From TrEMBL:
Species this protein is from: Oreochromis niloticus
One cellular component (GO) term of this entry: mitochondrial matrix
Gene3D superfamilies hit by this protein: Probable tRNA modification gtpase trme, domain 1
Coiled-coil regions listed: none
Name of this chain's protein: Iron-sulfur cluster assembly factor IBA57, mitochondrial
UniProt keyword list: Heme biosynthesis, Mitochondrion, Transit peptide
Family: Belongs to the GcvT family. CAF17/IBA57 subfamily.
Length: 367
């Protein structure tokens, strides 16, 4: 039927990508490669690696200001234990010196994604162990309330960090499969967090600064880029971020490729939403996945969750979000290799095609 099935236990990290891996006894450890071939039988275009990259001078690093991302500070002796029970990933990762950033989701009790977050271990020691929590700016207040609900008597302090800014740093010289070149910091003391993006090396590095600090004075050989180019890059490689791509209470973490983004541990123990997530994982079959798509032409007036149809009119999934002709759609894997259609609210119909991202694991195969 052309259904893509993904191997059990595909939680392992990529060698050389600076990602933490934990093997589960009896499980299959799958190595993520920085460049992989499309699964057999999936005839898709590999447009993602030459689309969406802004044009800059060769050898330059580009800093993108991310106004859609906010930071909270969580600090205190119970920080690790507190977060361990409400996120999908294992806080033990941050105890290792080489891992100071961690990607995870917070789920509701039905196992659906509420928030996608990145945690950065604080450099400072005053005030005890702590992390910065990066989240979508539009749900900052909601996640603050969510954290306080589960705080109970934990010895932690939670506070918004409106005085800080988040930047993404990408290299314009890297090619698919090439290791990301780490820029030199001219003023490392000004970088409150400076870590490889834990989701995939194709997302470069993350930088946290005081809002009044210019990143060009912190990173050597760097120039500022347009935030819209950052989003085009994300959509081109198929990486979701924020509430538009991962609607709270709607998206399922495994359908959203949380395993491939190193965002979940299946051996850490209990957390909110774990039961359904673990059961789905152990069945070994994910029938729908969030995939990068290219539309035949940009479309305006797309409603959230616009239906995707095959050429014969069969339901094939739902469109999530995008910019221009690039986007993300939740696609039934049985129809992933087909040309699909969608219709906007102003009755415009366009076709779209999905691609298999290079950063997906090689063991994602077609039966």
């Amino acid at each position: 039927m052309g259904v893509l099935c993904f191997a059990r236990g595909a939680l392992a990290s990529a060698s050389g990508l600076g990602v933490y891996a934990r093997k589960k006894p009896g499980g299959l450890c799958v190595t993520l490669l920085s460049s992989v071939s499309a699964p057999a039988g999936i005839r898709v275009r590999r447009y993602s690696q030459d689309t969406g990259n802004p044009k800059h001078s060769p050898g330059q690093f580009v800093c993108y200001y991310l106004p859609h991302r906010s930071l909270l500070k969580i600090q205190g002796q119970d920080t690790s234990a507190f977060l361990q029970g409400i996120i999908t990933n294992d806080m033990a990762v941050l105890d290792e010196p080489e891992h100071r950033a961690l990607y995870a989701h917070m789920l509701n009790v039905q196992g659906r994604t509420l928030y996608d977050i990145i945690l950065y271990r604080l450099k400072e020691t005053e005030g005890g162990y702590g992390v910065f929590l990066e989240c979508d700016n539009t749900i900052k207040d909601s996640i603050l309330k969510h954290l306080k609900v589960y705080k109970i008597r934990r010895k932690v302090n939670i506070s918004p960090c409106s005085e800080l800014s988040v930047w993404a740093v990408l290299s314009q010289q890297n090619k698919p499969g090439q290791e990301f070149r780490k820029p030199e910091l001219s003023s490392p003391d000004k970088a409150l967090a400076w870590e490889a993006d834990p989701r995939t090396q194709q997302m470069g590095r993350r930088l946290v600064l005081q809002s009044d600090v210019d990143p060009l004075k912190v990173i050597a050989s760097c120039q500022k880029g347009d935030t819209e180019d950052y989003h085009r890059h994300r959509y081109a490689i198929g990486l979701p971020e924020g509430v538009k791509d991962l609607p709270p209470g709607v998206a399922f973490p495994l359908e959203s490729n949380l395993v491939y983004m190193q965002g979940i541990s299946f051996s850490k123990g209990c957390y909110i939403g774990q039961e359904l997530t673990a059961r789905t994982h152990h069945t070994g079959v994910i029938r729908k996945r969030l995939m990068p798509v290219r539309l035949s032409s940009p479309v305006e007036h797309l409603e959230e969750g616009t239906a995707l149809l095959t050429q014969s009119g069969k339901p094939a999934g739902k469109h999530r979000a995008g910019t221009g002709e690039l986007g993300l759609s939740l696609i039934r894997m049985a129809h992933a290799k087909e040309v699909l259609t969608l219709r906007s609210s102003d009755d415009t119909t366009v076709t779209l095609e999905a691609s298999v991202p290079d950063w997906w694991p090689e063991d994602a195969k077609c039966n």
